[in-house]
């Protein structure tokens, strides 16, 4: 579903990672690990096409992925239900009710997204993934702001996604109880010769 070969990742003109290679098959989760600042977010952004790679190759089905980070693609003035309906229409899928149920959002359906708490907003962002119908999820710290119950909701959602033949590449510091996730520790891929140009400045 995803193949990354010899990838070099930069941020702010500094080469962070080099020689990163991995494959991700249907039904598989790959967890990116490493200390703060090693480049987990930058790697995810590069795979998602939000910033260019300095080198290497990324192969996957075009339009096959959905990306979720801190800015979740949620419109503050639209209600919870309107946001999900909007994305369901964009992706040509349905399942708005099921997505709200999965993240316990039905009692909040009419609330403007801008009036949600941080954790509620994060639940809405994760519910958005369910209505995309996309097989590959790219997730940057998906459990930030979630309480224990909501972490459980996310864990159930990602397990169901994998069981249905989806895949997930995620940066997370917590154990989601996934069966046999592959863990990729990024520290060994730290770039030895950081470049200091403004290569990706326009994409920050
Ligand atoms: N907009 C930016 N401009 C320049 N440098 C940046 C920018 N955003 C992040 N960086 C730097 O790039 C490096 C990698 O950051 P990144 O967010 O990818 O790390 P991370 O592994 O996800 O960290 P964390 O575990 O703290 O989330 C860090 O040194 C960071 O300071």
TrEMBL record:
<keyword id="KW-0547">Nucleotide-binding</keyword>
<keyword id="KW-0201">Cytochrome c-type biogenesis</keyword>
<keyword id="KW-0472">Membrane</keyword>
<feature type="domain" description="ABC transporter">
    <location>
        <begin position="2"/>
        <end position="204"/>
    </location>
</feature>
<dbReference type="InterPro" id="IPR005895">
    <property type="entry name" value="ABC_transptr_haem_export_CcmA"/>
</dbReference>
<dbReference type="GO" id="GO:0022857">
    <property type="term" value="F:transmembrane transporter activity"/>
</dbReference>
<dbReference type="GO" id="GO:0005524">
    <property type="term" value="F:ATP binding"/>
</dbReference>
<dbReference type="Pfam" id="PF00005">
    <property type="entry name" value="ABC_tran"/>
</dbReference>
<dbReference type="GO" id="GO:0017004">
    <property type="term" value="P:cytochrome complex assembly"/>
</dbReference>
<keyword id="KW-0067">ATP-binding</keyword>
<keyword id="KW-0813">Transport</keyword>
<protein>
    <submittedName>
        <fullName>Cytochrome c biogenesis ATP-binding export protein CcmA</fullName>
        <ecNumber>3.6.3.41</ecNumber>
    </submittedName>
</protein>
<keyword id="KW-0378">Hydrolase</keyword>
<dbReference type="GO" id="GO:0016887">
    <property type="term" value="F:ATP hydrolysis activity"/>
</dbReference>
<dbReference type="InterPro" id="IPR003593">
    <property type="entry name" value="AAA+_ATPase"/>
</dbReference>
<dbReference type="InterPro" id="IPR027417">
    <property type="entry name" value="P-loop_NTPase"/>
</dbReference>
<dbReference type="InterPro" id="IPR003439">
    <property type="entry name" value="ABC_transporter-like_ATP-bd"/>
</dbReference>
<keyword id="KW-1278">Translocase</keyword>
